[in-house]
Amino acid sequence: MSAQIERDFTFQAGVHFQGTFSMNIYAFTLNMEVTTENIREQQVAMERMKYFIYACLENSIFVQDTDRAIIEKYAACGIRVCEIPEEPFDQIIALLLLLKLDSIAEHRLAVTDIVLTSKLSDDVRFKEDLLTAKNEIPAVGWWAEPNTSTSTVSKIKNKKDKIVKMINTSEWNDVGLSWEEDTANTSNVTEIIFTTNTATRNP
């Protein structure tokens, strides 16, 4: 039997818009359907979402993917960059989150819709659903991949010819969030907690 659930998330990230850098605070409510009866898979799906938001998006910078020079400068400074196909308005962020979090859950939790607001939007809320996201956003990109990537470019070279990674390459099994239980290291599994306590922000 399927169930409908929702969870609130809040994270801080930067935006680069029209040559200006600003910090922003995003808050959103994600609505989902539980599509597996396996309790552990439900927990892992939720923990994957939390990990992506708080370990990959938190304190990153949203930059339009065509602005290569700016992306390279941020990456050369060791700053995480989240490349997006349009300018970083709240609506595009909401659509990308829908697609990415649904991909990460890999059909264990089915993301249906989102309500997102931010400090820069003056508390205006954007309501979007998964069907709209699939119609508005290109089918190919990091948002369609069930991993932790936030960029379609894996590395660049700065002026000192050093390699700067732009993608979080951690595999889910490296952080104890694979679908198969790791019997050799059960400590990671016991830390997975499925909770509705929205005050807990740590992944």
Mean pLDDT: 84
Reported for the largest beta sheet, the result is:
6 strands, mixed
Order of helices and strands: EEHEHEHEEHEEH
- The CATH topology corresponds to Tetrahydropterin Synthase, Chain A
Q: What is the gyration radius calculated from CA atoms?
A: 17 Å
State the secondary-structure class.
alpha/beta
CA-to-CA gap between the ends? 28 Å
How many domain regions? 1
From the spread of the alpha carbons, the general shape counts as globular
Your description of this structure?
This protein has one domain (3-190): 6-pyruvoyl tetrahydropterin synthase/QueD (Tetrahydropterin Synthase, Chain A, 2-Layer Sandwich), CATH 3.30.479.10. The protein has 5 helices and 8 strands; from the N terminus they run ββαβαβαββαββα. It has helices at 39-57, 68-76, 90-105, 130-136, 187-190; strands spanning 3-17, 20-34, 61-64, 81-84, 109-118, 126-129, 155-157, 163-165. It has a 6-stranded mixed β-sheet with strand order 4-3-1-2-5-6, with helices on both faces. Strands 7-8 form a two-stranded antiparallel sheet. Helix 3 (90-105) crosses helix 4.
Topology:
Elements: E1 3-17, E2 20-34, H1 39-57, E3 61-64, H2 68-76, E4 81-84, H3 90-105, E5 109-118, E6 126-129, H4 130-136, E7 155-157, E8 163-165, H5 187-190
Parallel strand pairs: 1-3, 3-4
Antiparallel strand pairs: 1-2, 2-5, 5-6, 7-8
